[in-house]
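Model the whole thing, not chain by chain.
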Amino acid sequence: MHFNPKHIPLIGFWLCALSMPVFAQDNTAGKLHQRANASMCANCHGTEGQTVKDSSVPSIAGLPRDYLVQQMQAFKNGTRPATIMHQISKGLSEEQIASMAEYFAAQPR
Amino acid sequence: MKRRQLLQTSLALATTPSLVLSQVWAANAPAKAQVVVIGGGYGGATAAKYVRLFSNYKIHVVLIEPQNQFISCPMSNLVIGGSKSLSDITSAYDALSGKHGVTVVRDKASAIDPQTKTVSLQNGARISYDKLVLSPGVDMVFDSIEGLQAANASGHILQAWKAGPETVALRKQLEAMPDGGVFAITVPEAPYRCPPGPYERASQVAHYFKQAKPKSKVLILDANPDVTSKAGLFKKFWNDNYKDTIEYRPNHKVTAVDTQSIRFDVQEPVRADVMNVLPEMRAGAIAMQTGLATANNRWCGIHYQTFESVAAKDIHILGDAVLAAPAMPKSAHMANSHAKVAAAAIVAQLSDLDIHPAPYLTNTCYSYVNDKMVVHVASVHQYNPAEKTYKTVPGSGGLSSEANTLEGTYAWNWAQNIWADSLG
């Protein structure tokens, strides 16, 4: 295979693609901030979204992202009755909810 | 064991081979750690675990805690009420070391040198740190009330505001009290640890008296002008259920005690058979002696985005000891929340990453009004970068509509989950 300067951007892309997952998952500031946000759910819903055995407070790890967003919306607008989540959900922005839903959806059940 | 837990345990063991021991003594404490945490309560234990988690087990953490077990303040009023025992509210530190690779040193921190970034332990060892997390809790200011130090030392007047032996001793005093006796609890001026705690305790004692000693009384002598937290909910439940048992008296500031009575700045002295006198509180001694209690020589001023002390670089202070932002209670749940924001900031700083520009905190506080029914208060606190403090989010948070048993179940499960989140 002959060296073709046109491939340089592509090589760069593949190098990035190879290295990105490691950094994107573990080391970027954005992911750290997302984890910190999501950890605010853990006091009740368990570390990484897994509650203790037989908990009446449900685990939220591994639930589908869209389901988690919909439930938070339902708590916010009152269509899902709650003892406390209607009050907590109203403290979170749409962006915070989407970010946390994405985080918990990616956690093993 | 789940696969993820196994992986975490293997990683922890791989990165810190000395952690086969669940706890180490000061003589074996390492000379240096990236992060040293002083205090294994809700704030410190959570910070130790979450620095490990957020750094993907790359940052070495040492936790210094003199007690060999964690005894929870939340739920400890149920021990006083008689529906739970101390073992129900006690957890081990084993998972922090065995599962998360935290080096748990069973000792007491005796001094901090912010210049050399070194912690001295009571048993003589020294540990230097890159980052220190200080979660010292509160100390009772016994000498703010004449006679209280001696009455507490002799066991006549207990505080039981740090769960443990005094919790059990207070329960025994109540059991030994004859029917027709008086239990008096005094509430210091806010801020103090656990705003609804005194009213929950009064409810628990009233519940016990109603079952076992129906002619007995509960007197609440409050330095504040009204019930500090969940006032409407507590007062309605007392009126509906403990009308003949609980008497609430506001604006009662305690000045002195002896073994039989409590004296006030204005009102006549009160005699009681069992007295639970809570003096004013301040940040734990180690924070005071290090010069970190910058607010009224009582609470520790912090930069709220990172929880770093305003007085000392690389010392992050958590929990009840900090000067609270507006409407931020001194609670266990809040300390757990503080710890996570601080842990993320510490991991960011040690990893050369941007600090979270706008962290937020949650708080949930359940109070048992009898052995099964609960009232709650909840809040969400968003960091405001322009004002550099936390503010409650408008429209969020709130109270139970009334005392109910469903939340009694949730409250006990909240406890199980926050114990696991902080220590498990």
